[in-house]
Amino acid sequence: MSPAPYLSVIIPSYNELSNVRRGVLDQVTEYLDQQDYSWEVILSDDGSTDGTLAALHQFANAHPGVMVKTNIHAGKGPTVQAGMLAARGKWRLFTDFDQSTPLSEIEKLWPFTRQGCEVVIGSREMIGAKRDKEPWYRHLMGRGFNLLVQGLAIPGILDTQCGFKLFSAAAAEVLFSNLVVYGRQSQRDDAYTGAFDVEVLFLANKYGFHIKEVPIHWHHNETDRVDPLKDSLRMLRDTVRVRLAAVKHRYPESTDQPIRPDQPQPRPGQHQTDHQSGNFHSSAPLNGRHD
C-alpha cells in the first residue's frame, strides 16, 4: 500500500452532473497539483441518478489521486461519513461539490493545525468572512437556526453549517465513527443535507477536541434541492434528536472504543475504512510530492 497522503479531500455528490460539466473538479485538482504535500480526493457519491457517477469515474480515471466511493442514496451526512472513514490522510477536509467555498480557502485553516487544533471549520459569520449573493431570507433563516443550535447543542459556534471543515485523522475517526442520528445508511427518496455538521461538532465538543472557527469566502450557488423552510424544520428536529441521543447515553462516554451504528463494535485501535453498502474505487496512486 502506498504511504498515507498528507491531505484527503472528501467531496460528496448527489446529481451534480451540471457542476461536473462546469469544471469544478478540474479546479480542485489544479489547485492540489500546485501544492508541495501529498493528497487524495475521494468523490463520495450519494446514489446519484443523473449520470453523475459515470462522470465521476471518467474524471477519476483521468486524474491520479482521485477515487470514487459509491453509496446508496442516504443523504449528505452518511455520504460524507463514508468518505471520511475511507480516507487515509493525516488531515481530512470535506468541501461542497459546487465549491461555494473554493478549495484554496484551506490556506486560512492550516495555521491553526500547527497550533494544535484538530477540528478547524470555515465560518461565514465571523468578522472577516465574505458571503456573496446569498438571498436575505436564507441568511436570516440560517442565523435563526444557529441560535437554536447554540442553545440546544453547541454553544459558541457561529456557523455550524458551512460545508468546509478540516479534521485530523484521529478526530475524523472518532467523530465520524460515533454518529448516531446520521450514522446509518438508509435509503431515502429525497435530497437531504440535514444537520449532520451539528452532530459532528457536538461530538467534537463532547470528546474535548479544540474547535477553531475561521472566517472564509463563500459564494451562494442557487440550487433547487433545498427547501429553506422544510429543511430548516427537519434540521431542527435532527438537532433535538442529537440532544436526546446524548441524554439517553447513546454516545460512548469514552473515545477508546468508537461504535459504528451500522457495523459491529470494532476492537480498540482498529482502523476501519469501508462503509456499509459503499464500494471504493481507486483509479491511480495518490498524487503529490511528499508527505
Topology:
Elements: E1 7-13, H1 17-21, H2 24-33, E2 39-46, H3 52-62, E3 66-71, H4 76-86, E4 91-95, H5 110-113, E5 119-123, E6 130-132, H6 136-152, E7 164-168, H7 169-177, H8 196-206, E8 211-215, E9 217-219, H9 228-247, E10 279-282
Helix pairs in contact: 6-9
List keywords for this structure.
two-stranded parallel sheet, 291 residues, globular, 9 helices, Spore Coat Polysaccharide Biosynthesis Protein SpsA, Chain A, alpha/beta, single chain
What does this structure look like?
This protein is an alpha/beta fold and 291 residues long. It has a single domain, classed as Spore Coat Polysaccharide Biosynthesis Protein SpsA, Chain A. It has nine helices and ten strands. It has helices at 17-21, 24-33, 52-62, 76-86, 110-113, 136-152, 169-177, 196-206, 228-247; strands at residues 7-13, 39-46, 66-71, 91-95, 119-123, 130-132, 164-168, 211-215, 217-219, 279-282. The strands form two sheets. Strands 8-5-7-4-1-2-3-10 form an eight-stranded mixed beta sheet, sandwiched between helices. It has a two-stranded parallel sheet with strand order 6-9. Helix 6 (136-152) runs parallel beside helix 9. The protein is globular. 43% of the residues are buried.
